Structure formats: structure tokens, C-alpha cells
Amino acid sequence: MAKIRILPDALASQVAAGEVVERPAAVVRELVENSLDAGATHVEVHVQRGGTALIKIVDNGTGMDREDAMLCLERHATSKIRTKEDLAAISTFGFRGEALPSIASVSRFRLATRQAAALSGTEIEINGGKISDVRDYGGAIGTVIEVRSLFFNVPARRKFLRAETTEYAHVEQQFRLHAIANSQTAFTLTREGQVMYHLPAATNVLERIRGLVGDELGDRLIPVEREERRGITVHGFIGGPGQSRTGKQTQITFLNGRPIESPSIHYGLREGYHTALMKGQYPVTFLFIEMDPHAFDINVHPAKKEARFHDGNAVREAVALAVNQALTRSTRIPEGHRTAASPSPAFSLPLPVTVTPPRYSRPPDHAQTLLPIPAHEQRALRHDWADEKSTEPLHAPARQSTLPSPIHPPVSQPESKDFPTPLSPPQPVETPKNKADNFRIIGVLNTLYVLMEGEDGLVLMDQHAAHERVMFERLRASLEQDGVPSQRLLIPLTLQVTPREADLLQRNLEPLSRLGIEAQPFGPNVFKVDALPTFLKTDDPLDWLNQVIEELSALSAKSSSLRLGEDMIASTACRHAVKANDVLSMPELRALLVDMFTCEMPYCCPHGRPTLIQISYAELEKKFGRRAP
Q: For the whole model, what pTM was predicted?
């Protein structure tokens, strides 16, 4: 007797529903996408009990006649594609023909639709996948779909649903995604009969974003100008330095109008933000990517939320370049670092304001630095203030420091012949006017925060973070030209890797050599390491090399080879930068401000913390009661 049997249609539909409809938010996603494919200009979403009791979608799209209304409930029946060639270039949201029959098989389902030219439409009721009634419908033009008692006949699936508030949060997230991607369409969301969002058709994407996330976040977004690279167009809005979240809820990306998630896009965002984003944080992005439908495959996930690119590196590089250029072009001073844990902290000054006497700290111990800085590099990092008239500390202390200025501490370590040839410091690009001229230094708070008057209000500069950024970019520019000094090993190391890692190492031997790692193939998937960087202080060099390989695999083909060692450079800059208690004179502070604005990314330190924070005059007026909050 045969063991293999064909499943009944009802059971097969429930199996398919488990892939397509995992929770109420998936129902909302599929039905809203159908409404958008039908050309709707207004979509209403009604939810009760998180979507488990009722999901109702009302649109004013083209509607269907009775024949199409009956066919759309059959499995694999769709109007979106006709041939296998269409599957390779999908331009609509839906295309499989699985959503409606899958939803109808696990709910009490009602579909009512009417076309503009028809005197009456069609209304169909289905109970657990079985049609119970078909009749005429005299409602408005468009389509109404009601999904009641979701998973009533699949208790195993229903018991895995979360609390109603959690399920509604997922529904709201799907609603927000489609509302942002389709700003020209009006959207309404109601929960338990109460209107949560009423979004009229917007003239641009930023207007829709403001309607969903508020003006406070909308005002802080940086535009990403539309540019095409290798057939890939990237545009939208991103958060500036110091603006991040602990989760991915606000890391929103769209591919040809479809909200998706992709490792290539994620790596592109990380690479584009680079040192403007703290580790463990996620950027705030509303990014739109447009490309030829033949260049990617959306048919790789039942929920259609992932895409597979033919050239993932091209997408990653396009995203990284667009984000990096937007951050570089931005002239907006951050208003403070805000995360999901504290989305909108209010600025408050303790009263009375007291400037504490300076506490002098010893110069950093250079013997413990991660990357030794030779004497000529220390000289390159010094500032020439010989022409300045005043050298009095701005903190107005009663005592003077006898130590050298902490912004250029002396070097206790002698020069080594292994260090690269001395270089002159990189020359800043000459501009008619440095941005530092727009600020007037008025004091220092707690021997750390430099208070300045700007065009738009009070500006605070973290002297440690600012000097970190200056030193980081100078060290990076120097090491990009000369590389990192290395030390040969008495006994070479053998590094066993996977075939994929072996190919990666083989293609990056030269960048690794510039990082101070001298390696060569030593058999199948084995490399012999003859030299390591002189800065390396670890008891397990093989573990460190494996970390380098992991970091190398996350970089795109055209990334700077120095990205592999930027953590090292950032640590060095942090150790050598002026500290919180170091007292700087007015000329030193002014020179630091000028040097910071010659940097490529002046508004954040190499670890992603802001160097400048602005408190606008409007905010100050609110604090002092001169303006209504």
C-alpha cells in the first residue's frame, strides 16, 4: 500500500497559510498590498483585539467583477504575472496568488467588491475555506475585505500569538511602512473604533514621515540626494550623527517601493555611517532604493520581505556612498544623542551654574597605547600657536599648570627605525571662510564642555570628542600612505580557515600587509603568518586574526583597506586626546575648533558620540517662559 498521499485541499491551504499568514500583521500586509496594486488612492485599516477578532481593509481601487472575485479565492490564481519571464521582473506587490485563499482558509472571510462601470458588485462569504454565500453587492466602488476570528480553526497556530498589544504593534508597523512608501495615497488606521492615524495624501515623502513620526524627528533628518550609480538610485532621509536607536524599528528601507530587509543594505548603512554611529546602535533611516526588477529576486521568502541581489556589492556600495555623502554634506549641528531608551530628553541646566576648579591630569602613558605614535607623528599633531598673544586658560583657574599642554603631550618612547618616513600633516582644503568663524567661545563648563554662541543658539563642544576626531582623521590619513609597522615572528603562525575565508584572504593579502600582517598561502585553506603589527598586545594572536577575518568579510570590495584597523586608530586617538580635566587656553580651544571643522566628519567622534550639541534660541525661550511650550 502506498505511503505517499495527496493532501486534501483544505489541509493544503492551511499548510500554505502557515507560511504566508504567521500573524495578523501579515494579513494586513497582504491585503494592503492588494489594494495598492488595484490603484487605490485611499486605504482604510480597521483592527479589533490586535487583529485576531477583526481586520477590515477598505479601498477605492478598481474592484473586480464576479468572475475575478471568485477566481481570486483559488490557489495560485493571480492577475500579476502570466509567464515565467514575468517572475524574473516583478513590478507589483503581489504575484503568487496565495494570500487570499490562505487567509480565507483560517478565518471567517468576507469579500465585497464593485467596479466603476457595474451597477452592482459581488459579495462572497467564506467560513474556514468553504464558500457559504455569494450575492450581489451595492456598496461603493472598490473592495472591502473582512477577516474575522483569525485562526479559529487552527488552535495550534492561534496559541502562539502574542498579547493583543504586541500584535497591534506589529500591525501598526506594517501600516507605517506602507504609508511611508506610498505617500501619494491616503491612509487611515483605526483600533477598536478609534482613529489612530488619519493621513491625507502627501505632496512629498518628508511630509508623510512627519505625519507618522512627528516634527521633532522630521526636523532632524538629513536628506539623501537622489543619485544613480551603476543603475542603482538611492534617496530618502537619514538621521544625523548622534541620532540612533537600540533597535531596528526606525531602520526602514524600501526597494522599488516595497519594504524589505537585506544584509547588503544593512552592511551598506553601517559602512556609510561608519564612525558616525556608535557600536550596538542602529541608524534612523527612511531610504528608498530603485533598480531594474531584473537585478534582484523578491521571490525568496514567503513574506516577500527579503530580496536577493544579483550584485549585492554594488547595492552595498551605492547605499554606503549615498549615506556617507549625505552625512558629509550636512551642516546641521546635532541637538544631542537620543536613543530609544530616552527618545526626547529635555535639556536642563542645574542652578546655580558653577564652574569647578580645574583638576589637572597627567599626560597619557604612551607605553600603554594600542598604537605607538612616533615622535614625528606627535610633531605632526601639534598645533602652532606661537603667534597667539594670549595663553591664559579660559577656565580662569587660580593656579597654573606646570605640565605641557595636554593637546600635544610629549613622547616618552624613542623613534623606531621601523616607523614610516615622516610626513607633513594633511593640509585642510582651503575655503573662503572656516565654519569656526561662526562661533564665539564664551566659557568652559566642568573643564570639559566648551560653551559657544552660534548663529542659532547655544552650542556645546566636547573638547575630548573634538580632539579625538581631529587626531583620528590625521592618523588615518598618515597610515593610509605608509601602513602600519610590523614585527616578524620568531616562530610563524599557521592559520586554518574555511575555503571561503581562504579566498577572502588571498584577495586581500596587500591590504593585510598594510595593516602589518604578513601572510602567505601554506597549503589548502592554510596560511602562514610571518609578521604581526607592533601595536598588537594579546595572548592569543590567532583569535585576533580570526576577528580581522570577520571584519574583512563585512567590508565591500572597494572599502578602504584601513577600515580593518580603524578600531586601533580610534583607540589611539582616544588615549592621546585631551581629557575631561585638561585645561586649555583660549588659543588652544580656538585652534581645536578650527581643526575640527576641517575634518571630513566634524560632528561626531570616531566612536559615534557627538562633538557638538546645539540648544536653539527657541528651546531656551521655552525654558525661560518666553515662548509657549
A: 0.70
